[in-house]
Amino acid sequence: MRLASFKSSFFSTRSPKGAKSYASFLRPSLRASIALLLAGATMSSALANEQFASCTAALADKAKQEGVSQQTIDNVFPRLVHQDRVIELDRSQPEFVQTFPGYFSKRVTDWRTEKGKEMYAKHDKLLHKLSEKYGVPPHYLLAFWGLETNFGSYKGKMPVLDSLATLACDKRRSTYFTQEFLVAVKLMEREKLQKEDMIGSWAGAMGHTQFMPSAYTHYAIDGDGDGQINLWASEEDALSSAANFLASLGWERAFRWGREVQLPENFDYQESGYKNRKSLSEWNAQGVKKADGSELGDDDTTAYVIVPAGHNGPAFIAYKNFRVIMRWNNSEFYAIAVGVLADRIAGASGIKATLPDLPAYSRKDIIALQSKLNDLGFDVGKPDGIIGPATREGIRNYQISNNMIADGFPGLEVMAALNIDLASKANS
How confident is the model at residue 95, as a pLDDT? Predict the structure, then answer.
């Protein structure tokens, strides 16, 4: 029960005429304890508000020093509101660990594919103009747009300036978010935006393409020619900005993101991953083929193999632009989803391999796995429930020592071999 509700139920409930109030039935000691609790909460809230007001006053001084007008400062800073929910989200850890099948199946959908094709037809002229100028094919721009905001149907619901000010006034990442907040204020002034219209993610990502303020400032451009760059209201601005951003990140014209592949039965999974880049000719010589069984062909282009769901799942080969996608969002899952969704919007059928049926591992499952690997001498660092490079390396070394396929993936066979009692399975 929230404290306000608790207080209301005991002290604000009306009683029939002539009846005693609820408070009169409470023992004096209990009444005193409740009073102290309420007083403490009030003092804590007052202190937090005072600290936030002091911080935003300091931010206002910085804004003025960096050229923000007094009118903007007077209009914005007194209206900033601390967002408790932002701090909760910044501190929260997900209960479950996302596996590739769950991630992919929720993002590369028939709806997004068909909506992408619809948006292709709507913006055909602009998309091809952008492709000629920046080298980014239309279906990639649409895939980013679809994954970021469902083509603009959901751009977030948090007040951006309030969220950024809250994070700027929090010690954990104050330096980064102070800069982002000040940039956002300057953007509001530069583009004549209204504070209440600047809605986005809890961390401050904005508009159709979910740009952080610094990306908005450096890469957003006026795509519709109205003299304003508005990533919330203008689809043309958003698509043009995405093309400019990707080109600036190093997108290479005429290259794909990668493709699904078939691996030979004797494939050494220790050769997968970014550190093991080889030319397509070399992969072709090792028996790696396209998903339809045809030859990869001879080419000097470097690429690397990815097995995001282990040896029982699909395999992909990633080209140079795959890493560009990861500079937008540093996740292999995300980059694969962008690539496959783009292919589907362009008319391809999607991946051919079947996604393995994996449970949604809980953080407790992964912590138990990491602890067991450490106990056996396969050092993965402090157990944290995150499947990072050290954990994958520890799994791979365990698999090698136990004559298992060394794909570095926490598959069910690994969990069973290590006698991990899956909490996620018990709760399913």
Answer: 87
Residue 100 contacts residue 333 (beta carbons within 8 Å): yes
**Nearest one of 423, 417, 421, 419 to 398, comparing CA atoms:** 417
Q: How far apart are CA 399 and CA 268, in angstroms?
A: 12
Tell me if residue 362 falls in helix, strand or coil: strand
pLDDT under 50: residue ranges of the chain: 1-26, 41-43, 428
Q: What phi and psi values does residue 142 have, to the nearest 5 degrees?
A: -70, -35
Question: Distance between CA 237 and CA 226 in Å, rounded?
Answer: 10
pLDDT score of 12: 37
Condensed to tens digits (0 to 9), the pLDDT of residues 240-271 reads: 999 999 999 999 998 999 999 999 999 999 99
CA 339 to chain centre: 16
pTM (two decimals) = 0.86
Q: Which helix (H) or strand (E) holds 305?
A: strand 302-306
Angstrom distance (rounded) from CA 385 to CA 370: 8
Q: How many Cα atoms are found within 13 Å in the side-chain-facing hemisphere of 32?
A: 3
Give me the helices (H) in 66-108, please.
Answer: 70-76, 84-91, 100-107
Q: What's the DSSP call for residue 295?
A: B
Mark residue 404 as left, alpha or beta (left: phi above 0; alpha: psi -120 to 50; beta: remaining).
beta
363-426 carries CATH number 3.40.50 = no
Asked if 304 contacts 288 with a C-beta cutoff of 8 angstroms, the reply is: no
Amino acid of residue 90: D
Domain boundaries, the chain: 363-426
Taking each helix axis from N to C terminus, what angle separates 138-149 and 110-122, rounded to the nearest 10 degrees? 130
Tell me the per-residue pLDDT of 185-236, one tens digit each, with 9 for 90 and over.
999 999 999 999 999 999 999 999 999 999 999 999 999 999 999 999 999 9
Angle at 154 between CA 163 and CA 148, to 5 degrees: 85
Q: How crowded is residue 227: how many other Cβ atoms within 10 Å of its Cβ?
A: 8
Query: Is the CB of residue 294 less than 8 Å from the CB of residue 263?
Result: no
Q: For the chain, give me the number of helices (H) and strands (E)?
A: 19, 7
Q: How far is CA 224 from the centre of its chain?
A: 28
**Both structure tokens of 191:** 């583009």
Q: Which of 309, 331, 335, 337 is nearest to 320 (CA)?
A: 335
